[in-house]
Design a protein that fits this description.
Number of helices: 7
CATH architecture: 3-Layer(aba) Sandwich
Strand order of the largest sheet: 2-1-3-9-8-4-5
Bound molecules: zinc ion
Oligomer: single chain
CATH topology: Rossmann fold
Distance between the termini: 38 Å
Radius of gyration: 17 Å
Structural class: alpha/beta
């Protein structure tokens, strides 16, 4: 009955539009270490040098509004919530001052089972809006999740999160521009294991410069 749930939510959204204002939400202006979440000014790895990607997080998961938008987007079919999340990401990317024309957005894929249950990939929805706002190309077919995994949110121990996603991604199709820098896009980052695992697969396929971009990171 997912289609019914999604339709009802879509109707509710149409009748009672949400407050999508991002004012008052603190937007960051640096990169972070994907392992320990330390701030990395000037995109310099100063702590965990062997990590597979930089973490770029627009804001903190402690922002109540953001947490609510993400949750409703993922679990309540509220696809319109992708819009304020993309607004936050666009503002953050401007703060980072990256040469965006050199980047390609690769949304973190869902397993086919999860995609069927949800009906859409929330990261892909956000990626498409970023393309619309900033003109960055999106390549949704590059990365594939080859194994269904338990939701990371259900696992508390970091070690369990690492094991849960180990080897679950592969690169299925190389983009036309093989030298593109990659913005790997996910909704949130908690332990960083999903981003690290996906970045590992991209590195194996030859990509060098990978940024794991999320709307919000847990912790500091
Ligand atoms: Zn670190």
């Amino acid at each position: 009955m997912d289609w019914l749930k999604n339709t009802v939510n879509w109707l509710l959204e149409a009748i009672f539009p949400n407050n999508y204002s991002v004012s008052g939400i603190k937007i960051s202006d640096t990169f972070f270490c994907v392992v320990c979440k330390a701030r990395l000014p000037n995109q310099k790895k100063i702590c965990h040098k062997d990590s597979h990607c930089y973490l770029a997080a627009a804001t903190s998961y402690r922002e109540q509004k953001v947490r609510d938008w993400v949750w409703r987007l993922k679990y309540r079919g509220a696809t319109g919530n992708a819009r304020p999340l993309a607004t936050l990401l666009a503002a953050y990317l401007k703060n980072l001052n990256l040469p965006l024309e050199k980047y390609l957005i690769v949304p973190v894929p869902l397993s086919s089972q999860r995609f069927r249950e949800r009906g859409y990939n929330q990261s892909e929805l956000i990626a498409d809006l970023l393309k619309e706002k900033l003109g960055i190309e999106v390549a949704s077919d590059v990365l594939v999740r080859i194994r269904h995994t338990a939701p990371q949110a259900e696992l508390n121990e970091p070690k369990k999160r690492v094991n849960n996603v180990a080897g679950c991604f592969t690169v299925s199709e190389l983009p036309k521009n093989k030298r593109a820098k990659i913005i790997l896009l996910d909704d949130v980052c908690t332990s960083g294991s999903t981003l690290q695992e996906a970045a590992k697969a991209l590195k194996k396929a030859g990509f060098k410069n990978i940024i794991g971009l999320v709307v919000a990171k847990a912790g500091q």
